[in-house]
Amino acid sequence: MSDNEYRHLISKARDAKRGGREAWGVMSTGEKVAVTLVLNRPEWLTDYDFTIPEAIDRSGSAWVALIPQVARGLADEDAEKDEQ
User: Angle 11-15-17 (CA atoms, 0-180°, nearest 5)?
Assistant: First the structure.
């Protein structure tokens, strides 16, 4: 897992967190399903008729390994904002 992959995925997840599915317009299907998993929004998978196991498979092993780290990164960002 590279730092570039982490930065890429957290950026896409931030966009979707702020803009919802409307932010998906510029994402690939793999990015969309990975972001769905990061944000714990399985209902978004219905747009692609994916199950959670299919989304994991579609995301690929590198991004699946990053999902917990990206989710924690977003939670840490939220906590920092709350402290300010």
Answer: 115
Calpha distance 81→51 (Å, rounded) = 33
Q: Give the whole-angstrom CA distance, residue 49 versus residue 82.
A: 36
Compute the distance between CA of residue 31 and CA of residue 3 in angstroms, rounded to an integer.
16
Helix axes 29-38, 61-83, angle to 10 degrees: 50
Global pTM value: 0.88
Q: Residue 68 — very low, low, confident or very high, per pLDDT cuts 50/70/90? A: very high
How far is Cα 37 from Cα 13, in angstroms, rounded to an integer?
Answer: 9
